[in-house]
Amino acid sequence: MSYELRLSNGDGEVIQTVGADNPLRFTFGTNSLIAGFERNVEGLKTGDSFAFVLACEEAYGEAREELVVEIPKASFIVDTEIDNDLFFEGNTIPMHDSKGNRLNGVVVEVKDDSVIMDFNHPLSDEDLYFSGTIVEVREATEEELKQADAGCASSGGCVGCSGGCNE
Fold it and tell me: Other C-beta atoms within 10 Å of 54: how many?
């Protein structure tokens, strides 16, 4: 599908545009997209258009206070040194949780020995407006279904992949 994502409504700030020349490809029903998004495009066919708003509760939810955490700078030691160039307000630092899941933290505040980081999704607290067109609908191939089982059901990137996504 091709689409445009805006904040709030059809007049809101454009956040992302995906053109028909390089459309979003995903395997429907694999939880690779926001559930509310899939509900709104379910049953659409090639050439159909769509436009809908997802309230923040249906999208990335409300920001959660417990996802703003203080992390010791010592946690960022690489080759016996801390890269202090990472620590400035607004910087996004890719990290992993204790289970190896990839997540991004945004530096909120820098202290002498620690950094306060926000791990909420950047679009939490936001209503999202999607409009677009279905470029193609077809049955998934066996390979696509295997990738979906591995958590790689979207061309937007892998979630929870063990290296089988070729990305």
Answer: 21
> 154 near 140, Cβ under 8 Å?
no
Q: What are phi and psi of 149, to 5 degrees?
A: -65, -30
User: Above 90 in pLDDT, residue 49?
Assistant: yes
Domain boundary, last residue among 78, 99, 118: 118
Range of the domain at 93: 65-118
Query: What is the distance between the terminal CA atoms of the chain, rounded to a whole angstrom?
Result: 20
Half-sphere exposure of 25 (CA within 13 A, CB side): 14
Picking from 111, 9, 123, the residue whose alpha carbon sits closest to that of residue 70 is: 111
Which CATH number does the domain housing residue 27 bear? 3.10.50.40
- Determine if the pTM surpasses 0.70: yes
Number of domains the chain is built from:
2
